[in-house]
């Protein structure tokens, strides 16, 4: 018997480029599809675009959103720089108990609140100068550290109104006051004093807002100044304007509440001023921890605005809005052209809904089994295009040499075909 012949192992031939051989390891799973937005979120996005472009009327709009939908709305707004800038710096909104309210003040509202802000700042600095002249330099220095933070959005951890306890489960509450006065030691999320101007809501809405500001902030907000300009009512009733002041208080059981010290006091009748003075105090502008360091006499120092000034601010705002636009000069162009918007800015509500439906259909399809992939105990196999091989090559076949035996056959057939053509 002939001795055993040792056979040298020949290196495997390179795989043909016409064949796709998969690795023995399964491929990485596909990326998770991006979840589609709810119909309500899409409506809010479309509404925000319309408001930002000035297409629809500037008034209050209300949407019912869950906290998850609100978070999704924020993510989608952040993806659109122009809309994010409008949401952050122009729009005022409140979110409470699953209700999102978009508030769009008009020119009367804006002009009036700016004049009130200026008057409060002037009176605040005058009080600080008066305290410094009397020798109370520390209180004067703290008053000068009070600054106007505008309509910065506040994130409050509120409590449910169904119970009187203060240890209820916190809920997300976001509010954008018309104006707020902060102190450098407390930051902008807990201003001691906020200002709200109602130009279309009922008086009860202002009281509800004040209660939410003071109670939901756990008395971090000490005072709420509210103005009711009387708009949205019948003309024959007269457009009276009133002011209210709410402060943090404690009831007989030691529970923190919101107390109305001044409620609906008229500062202007039917376009006529009323005698009186809006009086705030130093304690209204300082955080509670800082106010505890000063005497009652210092904390009760008045910061005032006469009612006649408030009436003049409102009359001036009304007159400014009523001024018609100036006529164009004779040399002005007669034809105009606006810059064309990008496709992303022209997305309409109907297209958004159609895209949402398409996303839902795509998600449903991805959740089904992909016909190009077969899952078996030995691994994953991929079907090769019929144009290339017309057969299935698995990872096991690739490693056992099945693919290598198929390669010379295909090459041999090509060689014979070429020789036949040359001979012919």
From TrEMBL:
Residue ranges, annotated region (Disordered): 320-424
Feature: compositional bias, Basic and acidic residues: 342-360, 366-383
Domain of life: Eukaryota
Bias (Basic residues) ranges: 408-418
Name of the protein in its database record: Uncharacterized protein
Source organism of the structure: Cryoendolithus antarcticus
């Amino acid at each position: 018997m002939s001795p055993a012949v040792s056979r040298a192992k020949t290196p495997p031939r390179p795989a043909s480029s016409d064949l796709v051989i998969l690795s023995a390891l399964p491929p990485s799973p596909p990326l998770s599809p991006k979840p589609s937005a709810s119909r309500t979120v899409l409506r809010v996005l479309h509404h925000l675009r319309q408001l930002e472009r000035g297409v629809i009327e500037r008034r209050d709009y209300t949407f019912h959103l869950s906290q998850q939908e609100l978070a999704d709305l924020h993510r989608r707004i952040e993806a659109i720089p122009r809309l994010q800038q409008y949401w952050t710096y122009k729009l005022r909104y409140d979110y409470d108990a699953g209700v999102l309210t978009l508030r769009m003040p008009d020119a009367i509202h804006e002009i009036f609140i700016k004049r009130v802000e200026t008057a409060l700042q002037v009176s605040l600095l005058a009080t600080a100068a008066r305290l410094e002249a009397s020798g109370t330099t520390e209180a004067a220095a703290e008053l000068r550290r009070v600054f106007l933070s505008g309509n910065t959005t506040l994130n409050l951890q509120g409590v449910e109104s169904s119970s009187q306890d203060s240890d209820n489960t916190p809920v997300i509450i976001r509010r954008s006051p018309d104006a707020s006065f902060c102190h450098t030691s407390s930051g902008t999320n807990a201003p001691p004093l906020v200002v709200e101007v109602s130009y279309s809501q009922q008086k009860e809405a202002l009281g509800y807002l004040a209660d939410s500001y003071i109670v939901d902030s756990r008395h971090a907000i000490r005072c709420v100044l509210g103005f009711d300009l009387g708009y949205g009512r019948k003309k024959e009733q007269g457009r009276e304007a009133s002011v209210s002041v709410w402060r943090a208080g404690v009831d007989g059981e030691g529970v923190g509440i919101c107390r109305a010290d001044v409620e609906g006091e008229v500062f202007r009748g039917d376009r006529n001023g009323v005698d009186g003075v809006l009086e705030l105090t130093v304690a209204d502008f300082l955080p509670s921890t800082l106010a505890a360091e000063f005497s009652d006499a210092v904390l009760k120092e008045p910061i005032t605005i006469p009612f006649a000034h408030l009436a003049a601010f409102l009359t001036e705002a009304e007159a400014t809005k009523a001024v018609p636009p100036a006529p164009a000069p004779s040399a002005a162009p007669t034809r105009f052209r606006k810059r064309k918007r990008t496709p992303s800015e022209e997305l309409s509500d109907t297209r958004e809904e159609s895209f949402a439906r398409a996303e839902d259909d795509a998600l449903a399809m991805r959740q089904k089994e992909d016909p190009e992939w077969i899952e078996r105990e030995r691994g994953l196999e991929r079907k090769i295009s019929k144009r290339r091989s017309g057969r299935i090559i698995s990872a096991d076949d690739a490693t056992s040499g099945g693919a290598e035996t198929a390669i010379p056959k295909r090459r041999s057939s090509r060689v014979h075909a070429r020789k036949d053509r040359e001979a012919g």
